[in-house]
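As the next step, I needed to go through one protein, both as residues and as discrete backbone shape codes, included below for the reader:
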Amino acid sequence: MEYISETLSNLLGQTAFANLTIGNLAMVAVACFFLYLAIAKEYEPLLLLPISFGMLLVNIYPPIMQEGGLLNYFFKLDEWTILPSLIFMGVGALTDFGPLIANPKSFLLGAAAQFGVFAAYLFAMLMGFSSESAAAIGIIGGADGPTSIYLAMKLGQADIMGPIAVAAYSYMALVPIIQPPIMKALTTKEERSIKMDQLRPVSKKERILFPIVVTIVVCSILPSTAPLIGMLMLGNLFRESGVVRQLQETASNALMYIVVIFLGTSVGATASAEAFLKLTTLKIIGLGLVAFAFGTAAGVIFGKIMCRLTHGKINPLIGAAGVSAVPMAARVAQKVGAEEDPTNFLLMHAMGPNVAGVIGTAVAAGLFMAVFGV
């Protein structure tokens, strides 16, 4: 009997139940809520499902993220900024830059949406964060998870990278919830109903030259952006050149999805109770929301200004797509516009600022790295 009781006692001691804390249970509940949003509500499931499952795993079995643990090896690829760069290549291979080329004014809307990045940077400084930490937190305003991870690691902010990454990806997934109230509050029914002229056709030559020219210009001015901008434009050149279809398909499908699995689960696994349930984490999540809201508002407000300057030819809603959550932010602009007029098609117009936002957020990260001498 003593042998049996000792065996049962040892077995019980090896279960997760013997080591779970109240914090772990709280994070398990959060992970299950995110899983619900990903599966039942389909809020960016490709991102939210692996993130929430990684969160679930690390709070049941913390060693999975410690030295020698499976997800720790995945996380090393984040630390080395390999996965964020590969994600950018996949995004480039998937994305049509035609709307941006056809309407270069979209660059201004993408730039305006970066106001949220710098607003959050200032707020973070006021709340006592170091300048490097504030910059890493501010980039959440671009709603760009890979760039958030990249900048946090480059600025040596690995200790807060987990909350930053989780906040960035969570807000990317929650774009359909966060953006519409802001967009509706800042626009009138008449503005939301504006129909824009059809975009001009973009030639194959323009499509091929665009990624080459952007790479030369941006990477010459801000060389530190080369891993992100370079991979984004390389993926797009795969797409537009028409001579490497196999590479384009691999970058946009198989490789992209493999990277999403590694990146998502490892980012989620940084949200252990010990690392996540802190006042600093709550501040970062709050500042991330402020950054995203300010970015959305700034894009819409600048869209209203452009609407006035063009005598009603630009629908201000497309300004909200200036955050770089591709293509979800553009879809939200389409959805909000269609609620006022079902015959209004804004998606392709919104893709211009959306793509500009991806470039703009990478440029904002490059500016921070230049300022801090990275």
In short: The mean pLDDT is 89. The two ends are 65 Å apart (CA to CA). DSSP finds 21 helices and no strands in the chain.
